[in-house]
């Protein structure tokens, strides 16, 4: 089940301009991921932040592991590149951390929600309980120095841009989206069917996984979506 779900997610995210993903050794449970902020107002804009995602065999019931290959100087990023972020924490409520079950991982989450949360975290650090105390102190007391450090990290990250890869910008991102417009719309319909189909059984998660069947019988797609709704 995990492999089928992840393959659908991989196909969808491959069309997104804000990330560049590849399988590691053709293993659907191991992804090479690069995050590319497209908000031109972000101090992280222009960077190429490479990471590795590893998925458990029981995904999506357990969260993936995420680790930046080149650690960033950030209040919520450990020295080894791992993150302190609620969405990657195991399901359930943790009284010690103060995190509610709604903030932590749940089977309704997807890779996209994780990556978007990480992009948001870069610009909106949580400094009350930092993974990197020094970075948290600098951000609070000397934001100008912190921005200079971010600028250095942006430049270092560019060393990981693959040869021949054209970095998207805030202006070109939508052009890429338009190129895949028809397929992109279809993949999002499939994703919605999986997300809202439920999360309590294998049968629910199998909904919409058979891409080939939908392509062979496109005329009945509307009826299938109506049934799911």
UniProtKB/TrEMBL annotation:
Listed A to Z, the keywords are: ATP-binding, Nucleotide-binding, Transferase, Ubl conjugation pathway
List the GO molecular function terms: ATP binding; transferase activity
Region: Disordered, residue numbers = 184-229
Q: Which organism is it from?
A: Pseudovirgaria hyperparasitica
**What InterPro entries does its record include?**
Ub_conjugating_enzyme (IPR050113), UBC (IPR000608), UBQ-conjugating_AS (IPR023313), UBQ-conjugating_enzyme/RWD (IPR016135)
Q: What PANTHER family does the database record attribute to this sequence?
A: UBIQUITIN-CONJUGATING ENZYME E2 (PTHR24067)
**What family is this protein classified in?**
Belongs to the ubiquitin-conjugating enzyme family.
SMART domains given for it? UBCc
How is this protein named in the record?
Ubiquitin-conjugating enzyme E2 2
Q: Where is the UBC core domain?
A: 1-159
Q: Where is the composition biased (Acidic residues)?
A: 184-193, 200-229
Q: Which residues form the active site?
A: 84
Top-level division of the source organism's lineage: Eukaryota
């Amino acid at each position: 089940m995990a492999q089928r779900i992840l393959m659908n997610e991989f196909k969808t995210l491959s069309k997104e301009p804000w990330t560049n993903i590849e399988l590691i050794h053709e293993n659907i449970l191991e992804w090479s991921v690069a995050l590319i902020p497209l908000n031109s107002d972000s101090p992280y804009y222009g960077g190429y932040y490479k990471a590795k995602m590893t998925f458990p065999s029981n995904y999506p019931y357990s969260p993936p592991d995420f680790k930046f290959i080149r650690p960033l100087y950030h209040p919520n990023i450990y020295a080894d590149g791992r993150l302190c972020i609620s969405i990657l924490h195991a399901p359930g409520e943790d009284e010690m951390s103060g995190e509610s079950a709604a903030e932590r991982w749940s089977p309704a989450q997807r890779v996209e929600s994780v990556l978007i949360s990480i992009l948001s975290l870069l610009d909106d650090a949580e400094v009350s309980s930092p993974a990197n105390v020094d970075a948290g102190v600098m951000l609070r007391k000397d934001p100008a120095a912190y921005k200079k450090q971010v600028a250095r990290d942006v430049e270092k990250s560019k060393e990981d841009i693959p040869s021949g890869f054209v970095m998207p910008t805030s202006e070109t991102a939508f052009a890429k989206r338009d190129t895949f417009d028809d397929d992109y719309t279809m993949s999002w319909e499939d994703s919605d069917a999986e997300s809202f189909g439920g999360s309590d059984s294998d049968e629910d998660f199998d909904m919409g996984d058979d891409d080939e069947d939908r392509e062979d019988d496109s005329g009945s797609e509307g009826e299938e979506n109506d049934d799911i709704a």
